[in-house]
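Hi everyone,

Forwarding the result from last night's run.
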Amino acid sequence: MKHLIFLVLNLTIVVQLVAQVNFTSSDLPIIIISTNNGSSIVDDPKVEATIGIIYNGEGERNNITDAPNEYQGNCGIEIRGESSQTFAKKSYLFETWDADGNDIDTSFLGFPKEEDFILYGPFSDKTMMNNVLAMHLANEMGHYSSRTRFVEIVINGNYRGVYVLMEKIKRDNDRVDIAKLTELDIEGDELTGGYIIRIDKGNYDGWVSDYDAHNSFNDIKFQYYYPDQNIVKPEQKNYIKSYVDHFEDAVASNDGYNDDGLHYTHYINLRSFVDNFLLNELSKDVDAYRLSTYFHKDKDSKGGRLNAGPFWDFNLSFGNADYCQTSDPTGFIYYQCGGNSPFWWNTWLNDITFLPAMRCRWEELRETILNEEYLNTFLENHKLLLAESQSRNFTQYPILGQYIWPNPTFFQNAATHAIAIDIMKDWINSRVAWLDDNLPGFAVGCDKFEDPDFEVTLEVSTNDMPLLHSTTLYPNPTSQTLTIQSSDVIHTLTISDLLGRQMYFIQNPDKTIDLSQLANGTYIVELQGEITTIHKIQKI
């Protein structure tokens, strides 16, 4: 409730904080929109307008008096978003239309041809970088997420500030690349894809999971997104629901297998779920897992596994929220902002398949796109890119140094855009350092997780770990003692739980170890030898 009060009070102030910039030219592309008869843009329906895009090329000046040379045509435009609609700076969705008001696919500013685009107006995010960075990282991880491009826009002759041109989530060869599902596709392989579903708020057709949200009795509701709720056929509804039900049954079981004998990895692209967790946790997005959370599935003949993504809506991330402990670069947002999040992630943070897959991927990404130098350079380059335009934006909306819901203190007090970016860099550096030390699990058996069709089967099951040198632990499971048989000289033995907490340690261990003091469960045994260090999964 206190956040709502702050929001109302804040918006009363912000509405007054709108200047009018004398805007003549930009080093960014310029988008000029004019509605018919100057009519106001509303939430719904879309109003008719013309749109012109001016872009004279890299390093060239763009003037509002230039003829639109990147694109010119008709469109329908409306305000988008929920709480952001109360901000002085609105966000918009527009469709490109022909002269008769029919949708037409168009391409501009390096975006592939499509008809639905978004003009996202960063407001409470004073870095203006949250969505841009998150989408970039998701794409670099190998998953589709919206392309982005900074622009400045003018609507009906009025300067509106710096915006991010983005793609609406859609099934398309250049967006969510899954098969088109028609009303005739109600059996066989044609029925198996493609689908886009999501977890989000709002009153949309869907179904309620058979399992409660983690640590609550709240329902998890999946919504039909593609095919649209108004056209999806009953057979298609039943199919995708049954598919997710079987997946959840496997996750909820004691060993990861459902009653059909299929492991949860049979149903999902494990890499996509690992990356989803890592990006959500890196950013500490307050909506992670429980809102704006999308999944998609292609036909069985085209892979057919459920993928996590595309990513969406990261404006309240990277420290930019004063609730759910988001501003603190420590802790897991899954636990700090729960209540409506699927139980899977909690199960997987104690899972002998997910944990090594996650740790392997984290260590791989830390060498590339999640390296501090890479992240700092990306933000620094965009700070320079926006050096000119941000000045106009914050003249139009003089909010620097003021609280805009839900800014934490450090973003509230940022006096300049450059300071806000530097704060973001410092927060991210602290965040990756904390994750280095606190992500559970060990990077073991990493090669196998590179396979997009990786699946645990009953034959390889839970002991599918590489054997390094001639070292054996037995019996497994054990109730009292553990015997070590090794050609290596073992210097230390460490036993940790699946969250990485050390439970037992001994130097120069004997061949037989008494484990009667440990509780029943699954552990990771680390043996540091003369030649190498190995890790084993051990059940007690």
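The first strand starts at residue 25 and ends at 26.

Cheers,
N.
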